[in-house]
Amino acid sequence: MRSYTIFAVLFLVIPIIEIYFLIKVGEVIGALPTIILVVLTAVIGAGLLRQQGLSTLARLQKNISQGKIPAQEMVEGVLLAVGGALLMTPGFVTDTIGFLCLLPFSRQFIASNIIKRSAMTIGGSMGGFGGGFGGGQGSPFTSGTDKNDIVEGEYTVVNEEETIVISNKNKPDSD
Description:
Blueprint: H1 2-29, H2 31-65, H3 71-88, H4 92-102, H5 104-123, E1 153-159, E2 163-168
Antiparallel strand pairs: 1-2
Helix pairs in contact: 1-2, 2-3, 2-4, 3-4, 3-5
């Protein structure tokens, strides 16, 4: 039901709002200036998209070469694509949202908020993995009380196709 609501807003409400604002702006400044303004925002948006896209790509490549995860740049890249598509759509509301996605200060703010929300979701409980990938209590990504434990073990191949028996040298045998 939720996706139906989102699609209803995207394909019904937003075009109605756009038409309303196009008519109101057309009444104030005239039809031809309104059309010129809509085309002008698309042209300015395309130039801004190109410039900001190249800047974000350069930062992404820099972070990758330094061994850093370019999460901010990846989210900004998606925002740039969304902003560019919105600026190519005729209307003032979509142009406003598109420019917010393209301008560096607002795009970085939006991207960092998206990353923070995603980090909270990922950092939460992951089903049977206890504390998620962070290695909380009960997590398979911790090795006990000390993170520097080294587990030594031996294994014996019982049947090459099916079973491998693993024994842990640090754990006393219970047999």
